[in-house]
Specification:
heterotrimer, A alpha/beta, B alpha/beta, C mainly beta, A: alpha/beta, Peroxisomal Thiolase, Chain A, domain 1, 3-stranded mixed beta sheet, 11 helices, globular, B: alpha/beta, 9-stranded mixed beta sheet, 14 helices, 36% helix
């Protein structure tokens, strides 16, 4: 059986989103680099403020998850942060987040990296930790303040944001994990060497052999193993590097607009990397009703995809408004121009 | 306890002394004061200074200055209380002489600020605030005063114009002080037009930072006549403290340490505030002038600016303040400021204040504020006639 | 810059999440934590977790920052009156400088306070932002 199911059923007992306040419109980027000629892949992207990074994003998302879970943070058996923009090369983001939310010292903490799927990997590991009975709760976070080379195609979309999930036993959960599955190969579509500031990518190679092959395969296998099809799900969300890819993946797998609409955030927040799929899921959980099914599949370059099948429980009722919703963060918006954006992202050479 | 008198004073002009170091500046003031007192020896030297370590990389300046001034061997220590270092050093001198431990004592306030300029100087000054709970949030000294002023204006329904006369008065008086940094009168319009430093504080609310040194020689009153016939008597010397951080104060708009030290001083001098002929207050910012007037008993809470608006603070008003320009126009060499105030009070009481001489100067008070109000020293002086 | 590790590290819990104290004698809520209650001078008490909600008591914008804070300048600092009683000094974030009013309801967030250069530590701590709507 390639799909993963824990001995003890697990689920999401709390979730939280975070999107920074600032937005740079894609047309503003094209104004600078193409004289406004040609199309743009999204409307606008979220930009972290001068005092924000993956750690601060993770802390706020984690606090929101705790508000919805209503559990004692000291019971978190692990605090894991998945990101490709950890503020320190050496020194865990996880310990700072764990300290800030009151999970220390009787906890496990650490950082994950797998391009844009580092956070969902932490979720899968959390399912294992809780499902095996080793810990009552695990906090899995995906957050990024993604960098992109000025003028590169990625600059239109590389954004900041994150989401946090507290994984616990199914009977306490707002949504149960029915199964998860991971599909991984060595496919070099996007990477960054240790000392490089900006990532490199294979341009069109990032599409068919990377994003689509992995995302679609992961979902297909999961559906097949569960004996389900697209119509069995109320919602679906994918990794969202732009607006087009996730819509096309949805279409390839037979999903309709009504299923993917709620989880498609990239047109208005951009690609939040490790946060992308996980934010799509928080947006869905904010509106989901008991008994509804959600399918979600991340994608990480390098490459792989983690797919999850979720069943929403009665306990979802009233949880959305125990912390700011994903849409509340999206609505909180302050537009910045390219000049301020370059300052906020540290793109101005100061020495 | 013995009564104390000032028998000599000296000061350097406040400004940018690029060619003179900390020790030179201290010597300049000290030398003038000793010459004025007609003495070549003192028993002890107290140095008021805040930033020698941070700005000039020099701690331990007591012996440095004593030795440089030809006083090697005497007791010499630095006293630090942020911007109130001058008053604090003077009070140490008073205690030394009053107790009988010393007879003739020199006190010099000195600050060398231009050895570093820019953000490091700003950080050095901010070190007078609470490092762990104020400074770590990027708060500067200007910002702390702005926070107080903003709330004060809100609470009492005041506008910027209500503070203008503090600045206009200081600049008018500074114009006639040869040692002042700014010697040009300004109009209310100039004040209103000034650029904002940290809202609502603008350039003409804030005093300028600069180099300077001022000194006084004191001795028991019964010995004073041996040195001079224009001794100035020290009627009161008091210091009080408050929480270091503004946010910890019971009322952030009230200078409790100013009230406490002023009232102790009135008791020591056996006078009421109404008997004072002038008040050298600590107008590092216009808001501090207003708060000082209130805490020292000249105005009710929220009404300090009225004394400025109605002209009471002018040289011909009921309570002249900043008679030689105050911190605003004379300049604010932080650790030296308290000694400048004392030297200027002595000039008035000796009848040597030149064009700014008050016709009737018999009793004068100085008040020196450290930090945002955590250390406040108040002294009262009387002329010898 | 590695000279100030312990100085900041020992304040982690206060800085990250506003953990103060409650006086066992007079129940005054204390922040920052102290050894002696500032209200009744008794020995200060057990940990108290502040909600992080408060209002702006006063505010200003810093245009001339001290060393170490240049990167975020200009920024707004405020005196924030916490709902539980004490007042604290902190930066406001996610606000437009100059668009802040006295009395604005704010909530605590954990943000970067300063960075000790490119190779030093990153300091995190409390700031406040306008209270956010839940939906």
């Amino acid at each position: 059986m390639p799909i993963m199911q824990a001995n003890t059923p697990t689920g999401i007992v709390g979730y939280g989103a975070y999107v920074p306040r600032y937005r740079v419109p894609a047309t503003e980027i094209s104004r600078v680099w193409t004289d406004g000629v040609g199309g743009v892949p999204i409307k606008e992207k979220a930009v972290a403020g001068l005092d924000e990074d993956t750690i601060t994003i993770s802390i706020e998302a984690a606090r929101n998850a705790l508000h919805r879970a209503q559990i004692n943070p000291a019971l978190l058996g692990a605090v894991w942060v998945g990101s490709e923009s950890h503020p320190y090369a050496v020194k865990p983001s996880g310990t700072i987040v764990a300290e800030a939310i009151g999970a220390v010292p009787h906890t496990q903490a650490g950082d994950w990296e797998f391009a844009c799927k580092a956070g969902t990997e932490a979720m899968q590991a959390g399912i294992g930790f809780v499902g095996s009975g080793m810990q009552p709760y695990v906090l899995a976070i995906g957050a990024d303040t993604a960098q992109s080379r000025p003028g590169d195609a990625l600059e239109y979309t590389a954004a900041a944001g994150g989401a946090a999930y507290i994984i616990g036993r199914a009977e306490e959960s707002l949504a149960e994990f029915e199964a998860t599955y991971s599909f991984v190969t060595d496919t070099p579509d996007f990477w960054r060497r240790p000392q490089a500031h900006y990532p490199s990518h294979g341009q069109r190679f990032t599409g068919e052999p990377a994003y689509f092959e992995h995302s679609v395969s992961a979902v297909k296998t999961l559906l097949m193993e569960l004996g389900r099809s697209a119509k069995d799900y109320n919602y679906v969300t994918f990794h969202q590097p732009n607006a087009k890819f996730p819509q096309r993946a949805a279409k390839m797998l037979g999903f309709e607009k009504a299923q993917w609409e709620a989880g498609l955030l990239s047109p208005v927040v951009g690609n939040t990397y490790s946060g992308a799929t996980m934010l799509g899921l928080t947006a869905i959980l904010d509106i989901a009703k008991p008994g509804e099914r959600i399918l979600c599949a991340s994608f990480g370059s390098g490459a792989g995809s983690d797919a999850f099948s979720l069943l929403v429980t009665e306990r979802i009722a009233g949880r959305a408004n125990m912390a700011p919703t994903t849409q509340a963060y999206i609505a909180r918006r302050k537009e910045v121009d390219y000049a301020l954006y370059t300052r906020y992202r540290g793109k101005l050479s100061m020495k | 306890m013995r009564d104390i008198s000032i028998i000599g004073i000296g000061q350097t002009p406040v400004g940018e002394h690029w060619g003179r170091s900390l020790r030179h500046l201290a010597y300049d003031a000290l030398h003038l004061a000793m010459k004025d007192a007609g003495t070549e020896r003192v028993d002890a030297l107290y140095v008021g200074n805040m930033l020698s370590g941070e700005i000039s990389g020099q701690a331990h300046i007591g012996p440095l200055i004593a030795d440089f001034a030809g006083l090697r061997g005497i007791e010499a220590v630095k006293i630090e209380a942020a911007c109130a270092s001058g008053a604090a050093a003077f009070r140490q001198g008073v205690i030394g002489v009053a107790s009988g431990y010393q007879d003739v004592v020199a006190v010099v306030g000195v600050e060398k600020m231009t050895d570093d300029v820019g953000s490091r100087l700003t950080a050095g000054l901010a070190s007078a605030a609470d490092a762990d709970y104020e400074t770590v949030h990027g708060v500067t000294f200007v910002a702390l005063n702005a926070l107080i002023m903003q709330r004060y204006m809100h609470e009492y329904g005041l506008s910027k114009g209500d503070f203008a006369n503090f600045s206009v008065n200081a600049h008018a008086n500074g114009a006639n002080n040869p040692n002042a940094m700014f010697r040009r009168a300004i109009s209310k319009e100039t004040f209103m037009r000034a650029g904002v430093v940290a809202n609502p504080v603008s350039l003409f609310d804030a005093s300028p930072m600069a180099d300077g040194a001022a000194a006084a020689i004191i001795c028991p009153t019964r010995l004073a006549r041996e040195y001079t016939d224009k001794a100035v008597h020290v009627l009161a010397s008091a210091i009080a403290t408050d929480s270091l951080a503004v946010h910890d104060r019971k009322n952030p708009l009230w200078l409790q340490a100013a009230e406490d030290s002023a009232h102790t001083a009135y008791r020591q001098a056996k006078i009421t505030p109404a008997e004072l002929d002038f008040f050298e207050l600590h107008d590092a910012f216009t808001i501090m002038a207003a708060l000082s007037l209130e805490a020292a008993g000249f105005a009710k809470a929220g009404q300090g600016t009225r004394l400025a608006v109605n002209g009471d603070i002018a040289l011909d008003g009921k309570l002249p303040i900043a008679t030689m320009g105050g911190l605003k126009a004379r300049g604010h060499p932080v650790g030296a400021t308290g000694m400048y105030q004392i030297v200027e009070a002595a000039l008035q009481l000796r009848g040597e204040a030149g064009k700014n001489q008050l016709p009737h100067a018999r009793l004068g008070m100085t008040q020196n504020i450290g930090g945002s109000g955590a250390t406040i020293g108040t002294h009262i002086f009387k002329s010898s006639e | 810059m590695t000279v100030e590790i312990a100085r900041h590290w020992r304040l982690n819990s206060q800085r990250y999440s506003l953990i103060g104290e409650e006086c066992p004698a007079c129940h005054y809520k204390i922040f920052p934590p102290r050894d002696v209650c500032p209200h009744c001078a008794e020995e200060a008490g057990p940990e108290f977790h502040f909600s992080g909600n408060g209002t702006v008591f006063s505010h200003t914008t810093v245009h001339t920052p001290p060393e170490g804070f240049e990167a975020q300048s200009p920024y707004t600092v405020a005196l924030v009156k916490l709902d539980e009683g004490p007042m604290i000094t902190a930066q406001l974030t996610d606000v437009d400088n100059g668009a802040v009013e006295i009395g604005l309801p704010v909530e605590m967030v954990t943000r970067k306070l300063a960075e000790q250069g490119d190779e030093g530590l990153i300091l995190y701590g409390y700031k406040f932002r306008p209270q956010m709507a839940m939906a």
